[in-house]
Amino acid sequence: MIDIVFGAEAAAAELEDRPIVALESTIITHGMPSPRNVEVARGVEDIIRASGATPATIAVIEGKLHVGLEPAELDWLGTAKDVAKLSRADLAACLATGGTGATTVAATMIAARQAGIHVFATGGIGGVHKGAETTFDISADLHELAQTPVTVVAAGAKAILDIPKTLEVLETLGVPVIAYGQDDVPAFWSRSSGLKAPLRMDDPDAIARAHLMRGALGIPGGQLVANPIPEADAIPAEILAPIIAEAQGEADARGITAKEVTPFLLQRIFEATQGNSLEANIALVANNARLAALIAHAIGRAQR
Ligand code: PSU
Q: Which residues form the active site (predicted)?
């Protein structure tokens, strides 16, 4: 039914039952400027290869669900115009109408599950936006984590979000939020949100066992592994807070809503930090890819 096009590398890994790490494509089309976006996408794939796992970047191209993009496809996506930002609500419609789109965390999780991939690395998940009590702007990523059995490695929720409310919703939805190697939930560009994580694990094997245990118990949904940005690349939260507040104020004043909010805020913060936010974003994605590869290996071992 679903036409999954596996990239050559991903196809070989599937056949030989080797660990695969899924990667999203919205970060390429809507999260980072060209040409850094493609450099980063390739760099992240290389990190996963160097860890002995196989990367599979996911996107929809002309109505086909691609799991593992070939280098030329990745290049093309980096500068392609009018690429949709696909989440749970629009993935099926895009596939059904022959459209092209980049997958968000939610859509990448759905695709990963279809392809039998357990682990997915990204930068930061979507969550509850500031002011959600009036706008109701809550990312579909949270509901996806509650439904789709994929372990997502992220540097927490992006700090442009309301992190306490995001954690509340995750708790309500029964999503395990596991801080990796520290007690606090990280805040994307910064190592700590000041909030204690519901769970802490220091070992990829434990994360892998918990992933498989949820499946064995018949609990739907995945896990969020919140991996702090490396110390050397972090931007202190005190520096970012006023920048984020100003960007948010501008988004409100301009009436920016729905899917446009996150890309707008990321761009404004990039400008206000003279590009430092992008460097930090790149470093944290690389760090997440490394951990995701370790977890993918651990799940493979546990299944043998
Ligand atoms: N991680 C990043 N940059 C991004 C994203 C993740 O470092 O741009 C994307 C993901 O695709 C995530 C989306 O699903 O941002 C969240 O968008 P929204 O807040 O509109 O749900």
A: 24 (proton donor), 158 (nucleophile)
Query: Helical H runs in the chain?
Result: 8-16, 26, 36-50, 71-79, 91-96, 105-114, 132-135, 140-147, 163-172, 204-217, 237-253, 261-272, 276-303
The residue nearest atom 17 of ligand 1, judged by CA position, is 126
pLDDT tens-digit map of 133-145: 999 999 999 999 9
What confidence tens digit (pLDDT) does each residue in 61-82 have? 999 999 999 999 999 999 999 9
**For residues 250 and 240, what is the distance between their CA atoms, to the nearest angstrom?**
15
Task: Tell me the ipTM for this assembly.
Answer: 0.90
- Compute the distance between CA of residue 192 and CA of residue 182 in angstroms, rounded to an integer: 9
Beta carbon of 31 within 6 Å of any ligand 1 atom: yes
139 CA distance to ligand 1 middle (Å)? 9
**Average confidence (pLDDT) per 10 residues, the chain, 304 residues:** 92 97 97 96 98 98 97 97 96 97 98 98 96 93 98 94 97 98 97 97 98 97 98 96 95 92 94 96 98 98 92
Q: How far is the CA of 120 from the centre of ligand 1 (A)?
A: 13
Closest CA to 203 of 300, 298, 303, 117: 298
